[in-house]
Amino acid sequence: MVAGTVNDLKNLKVELTRFMMSYKFALHEMNTKIDILKQEFHYIHEYNPIEHVKSRLKSPESILNKVKKKEYALSLPIIKEKIRDIAGIRITCSFISDIYEISNMLQRQKDITVVACKDYIKNPKPNGYQSLHLILQIPIFMSDREELMYVEIQIRTIAMDFWASLEHKIYYKYNKEVPEHLMAELKEAADSATKLDRKMEGIHKKMAVLKEEVQEEKDNSLELMLLNERFALPEDFLEKES
């Protein structure tokens, strides 16, 4: 009886370890994908749309609390299927357009399945919260099997992230019961953050147009850069022979 109990505990420990490791590997796979896209975008467009990337894995205690709150059965397969934010990644961008560009790049990956998408930018929450939420499913390959894992991706601007961080602190400071006048101020602050985002994006687009015009002038000039040195070419250098 005792030996059976000990073996059961060992098997449970192995299963729990595998369970958490699977999410850790899923985060690693997704972070690698994001880093590759980030570098590719930088090399091709000479611009980096991603400011910060932060990943987190829910603790076993946090998972159990959510299971209890949602009244799910205490079963690893059910937890895996029902709780889809155990592995989470937050991507912070400079501009709103970057959010949708990164989302599209991720969704075009052949081994990624889009399970759900909630756009809190086009449809903000009543308190003013804005962000794009994606639930993605990706395969991970273990020594003896392949598993499909859920990863939650949140993509937002710097202004949205700053607002959400402060809102979270205020929310818990007042034990989730924020006075109405503060809720109104938070909503006003969210609106101000949105205006700032749109203003900065407008400036960014104007700068991009100016940069393109300057680049066109450079492309049309008869100058060549070799080993970081500029050489002027003769006017008839590119003329065809008669």
Largest sheet: 5 strands, mixed
- Global mean pLDDT: 85
Major sheet strand order: 1-2-5-4-3
Structural class of the helices, strands and pairings?
alpha+beta
Overall 3D form: flat
Number of strand elements: 7
Query: Which band does the percent of strand residues land in?
Result: 15-25%
Whole-Å distance between the termini? 99 Å
**Topology order in helix (H) and strand (E) letters:** HEHHEHEEEHHEE
Poorly predicted regions are none
Report Rg. Answer: 25 Å
Q: Assign a percent range to the helix content.
A: 40-55%
Number of helices: 6
Report on this model:
Helix 5 packs antiparallel against helix 6. This protein has 242 residues and is α+β, with helices and mostly antiparallel strands. It starts with a helix and ends in a 10-residue tail after the last strand. The longest helix is centred in the first third of the chain and has 44 residues, at 2-45. The chain has helices spanning 2-45, 60-70, 76-82, 96-107, 158-173, 180-220, and strands spanning 50-57, 87-93, 113-119, 132-141, 146-157, 223-226, 229-232. Helices cover 54% and strands 21% of the residues.
